[in-house]
Model the fold of this input.
Amino acid sequence: MKIDILKHELVPHHEILSEEEVEKLLKTYNIKKEQLPRIRIDDPVAKAINAKEGDVIKIIRKSPTAGISVAYRVVSKEII
Amino acid sequence: MITASKKEIDKIVFGLLSPEKIRKMSATRIITPDTYDEDGFPIEMGLMDTRLGVIEPGLRCKTCGQRVKDCPGHFGHIELAMPVIHVGFAKTIYAILKSTCRGCGKLLLDEKELERLRKLYKKAVERGENTSYFVKEVVKLANKVSHCPHCGREKLPIEYDKPTTYREAGHKMTPSEIREWLEKVSEEVGDDLLLLDINPEVARPEWMVLTVLPVPPVTTRPSITLETGERSEDDLTHKLVDIIRINQRLQENRDAGAPQLIVEDLWELLQYHVTTYFDNQTSGIPPARHRSGRALKTLAQRLKGKEGRFRSNLSGKRVNFSARTVISPDPNISINEVGVPIDVAKELTVPIRVTPYNLEEMKEMVRRGPNPKPPAGVVYIPGVNYIIRPDGRRIKVTEENAENVAERLEVGSVVERQLQDGDIVLFNRQPSLHRMSMMAHKVRVLPYKTFRLNLAVCPPYNADFDGDEMNMHVLQTEEARAEAEILMKVQEHILSPRFGGAIIGAIHDHISGCFLLTYKNKEFSKDDAIRMLAAAGYMGEVKEKMTGKEIFSKILPEGINLEYKAKACIGCPTCVKEKCEYDAYVIIKDGQLISGVIDEKSIGAFKGEIIEYITRRYGNSAARDFIDRVTKLGIAAIMVIGFTTGIDDEDIPEEAVLQINEQLEKAKKKIQDLIKAYEEGELEQIPGRSLEETLEMEIMRVTGRARDQTGEIASKHLGMDNSAVIMARSGARGSMLNLSQMAGCVGQQAVRGERIHRGYRNRTLPHFKKGDLGAEAKGFVSSSYKKGLTPTEYFFHSMGGREGLVDTAVRTSRSGYMQRRLVNALENVKLEEDGSVRATTGEVIQFVYGEDGVDPMRSIRGKAVDVDMIIKEVENE
Ligand SMILES: [Mg+2]
Ligand SMILES: [Zn+2]
Ligand SMILES: [Zn+2]
Ligand SMILES: [Zn+2]
Done:
C-alpha cells in the first residue's frame, strides 16, 4: 500500500518556485541562494514533488498565531 | 595619548608543535628539578632559569634583557627519555590506529572509496561546511575491512583503554611503537589526512606522541612569597618538577640497563605525570594531589569551567564604575528609582565634559573637593574625585588641591563628578535570566548603607530582602545613557516579553490593602479618606464620607473602562456579574470602580489587568504613575484599616475539629475496607493496572479526598473576617490549601508520586507491622500543622519535604546549563529591519519573526489583537 504523503494532514503545502519567482524572492530579501534554509534532496516531500538540487521550495503552513506562514527552502544534495 | 596600530586578523590556524619547533622556540633545555639555590637565586637549567623570564623585580631576563614588566617570558623544553602519548589527542590517535594499516601505514580503504570521499570532502570545503564528521565515516568504513587493501596484511583489532593505553589484538603497544606507526601514516597517507580532520601542513600525526615537552615561561606560573618568607610554587611548576624527576630516573635506569619491568613502570609513571600535567581531571586515572590533599590545577583546569580563563576572564570580567550591596525596600521611591547610599555615591562618578557654558558651574563643583559639606537641611551634595586634563593627564582632586585645580580648570577637560539625584544607572540582580534582570533606574542618593528599591520591581528581579545583594553600574557615555533611558528604564519593562502581560505590579500588603479598601461597600470618614488619598498623591476634592471603591477610583485614569473576573471569583456555574455575592466581578466604567474588589487580578505582578490595560492604552509613564500610586494607596489603606495575622487565625471551633476527626476516621476505615477487599481478592482491577497498583491508586484517592474534605470543613469556619483568609483569597500571600493544612489536616506525604514505602524490609518504620498497608504506616499525616505532627508523621513529612528540596536543587542547576547552551547557540541571531531573523552571515532563520512578526511584549498575552476588548471599546463609544 502506498499513500500520498502530500495529502497528509501534518504535511504542509510544498511547491517548487519558478526561476522568476526565485529571483524575486532573492531580491526581496537581498540574499544569495546559499543563505536560504535548506531541505535535503532525499526529504520525503522533496522526492514526492520531484525537486532537483538548487530548486527553491515554497512551504505554506498553518500557524496558530499568524494564520498562514510562508517559508522557503533550497534543495540541497545529501551529504555522505 | 596611546595610539593603536591597526592590524586585521585574516585567519587563525590551529596546528601541532613539532619537536623541532619546540626546541627552536626554547630558550633553554631544563634538566634539573630544583628551582632555587640556597641564596634564593634561580638555578641554571632549572624550572626557574632566568632565561625563561623573570618575576622578581630587579632581575634582568637573560633572553631578552628586559625587566619584570617588559619581559613577556620565554619557553624552555624538557627532552623526554621515552615518548609519551599526549592525552589531548588520545581519541584522534585511536581513530588513526583504527583506520590505517600497521604494515604499510595507508588508509584501510580501497582507491574507489577514497576517491568518493575526496570528492565529497572537496565539496564540503567549497560549501564551507563542517568536515569533522568525515573521521567517523572513515573509521566506520575501515572497520569493515579484514585485510589491508594495499598490502594485504591482516588488520588486527585495536582496543583503547582510557586514558592512554592502546592494544593491538590484546597486546599492549608502547608509545614508541605507536609513534613509529604514526610516522608511517604521515608519510603514506599525505593529503588524505584531511579526511581524518588533520591538516598535514600544520600537524603530523606522530607529533601527538611527545618526545619533547615545552616548558611554559615562569611568567605563566609565578611563585609567590608568603609572609613567612617561604616560597610557594605554582601548581604547574610542581607538576613539571614531578615530570623532570621521573624523566631523570627513567633515563638513568634505562642507560644502566635496568630490568625491563622497572623501565616500563617508570615509563608508565612518566606518562601519568605528563597526562595530569595537561589535564588533572582525565577520567580513568586518579588526579595528582598536593601534599595537603588538594587536587592540582593544571593546564586544562586553568581554562575549563566557570572559574576557567574563558568564562571568568574573557567572556566575563570585573568592571569599574560598579557597586554591590545589600538591598532593602523603600515604598516611597518610584519604581523608576533606586536608592543609593551616600558612601557609594561618593565613590562612583559620571564624566562631565567642560564647555564654555558649564565652566563656572564645574569650577564651583571642583572647588568643593571630594568631600563637600552639604548646606544646612541637605543630606548630600556631589563632589569631584578626579579631573582629566585635555592632554589626558588624570588629576586626583583632594581637599588640599581642590581650590588650585578649580582655578586652572579649562574648557576641554573632563570632570568626574560624584553621583547625584537623577543620574541614570543600570541595576542588576543575578542570576540574570531574562532582560528584566538588568534595568535602568534613576539615582536617589539616600543615607544608610543599602540599595533601596520599590517593592513593585521585586518580581522582575526575583528579589526579596533576606540578604539579597544587587549590582549597580554607572553609565559613562551619552550614548549609553540615552540607550538606557529609552530602552532599559523600569517603566519600559512593565509588560513582559515572556507572556505579554504585566510583570511589574503590586505584591503582598499592597494587594491586601487594596482588597480591604475596596471589598464591598465599606465607608470611610473624610479624615481617613484624606490620609489615604494624600499618601497616593491625590490633590483633588474629598467628600464627607467615601466608600473604598470611590477612593480607589480617584487614582484610576480618567475615562477608563474595564470588565473582568477578580481573583476572588470562585467560578460560580452562572456568573451573576455585578450582583456577585463575593464582589468578585470587577466593572470599571468611565474611570469609576462600580463593582468588584481590587485584588491580585487587578494590580498584582504577573496578573494585573488594570496595569496591563493602562500600559497599552495610556503608555508607560501613566502605568508607572499608576503603580506608584496604587502601591502607596494600598499601604495607606492597610495602615488605616489595620491588619494582623497570627496562629489564632487558624483556630476552628471544637465541633469542627470533631467533624474533621470523623472524616479522617471514615477515610481510614475506607482504606481498611479497600485493603481487606484486596487481600480477599475482591478488589476490582482498573484496566491496564496491576491489582497492587489499583489498590494504591484507590487509597491515594481516598487520602486526597480526606484532605480536601477536612479543608472544606475548616474553611467553613474561616470567613472573610480572617486576615489569613483575606491574604489567600486576594492573592496577597498563601493559599487556601496552606490554611487547610494548618487548620485541618496535612494529608498524604509522597515520594516520587507514591505513598511512602521505602525504609525497612516490608515496612516504612519499625513502629509498624510488616506488610501494613494502612494509612498511618504509609505516610498519611492526619494531624494539622497547628496541632503538630506525631513522630512518625514528622518523619514521613521530612521524606516528602526532602524530595522537594532535592528536586529544586537539581532543577535549577540543570535548567541553568540548558539556558547557557541555548543562549550560546542563539546569541548571534538577530532581527533585521526587513522583519526576517538572520544569523551572522545573513542566512535566513525565519522569514518573518516568530511566523507572525509580532513582538511578544506588545502582544496581548501572546495574541496579536484582543478582539473582545476592541468590540467592547467600540460598543462603549
Ligand atoms: Mg533572597
Ligand atoms: Zn625575557
Ligand atoms: Zn597495508
Ligand atoms: Zn462570581
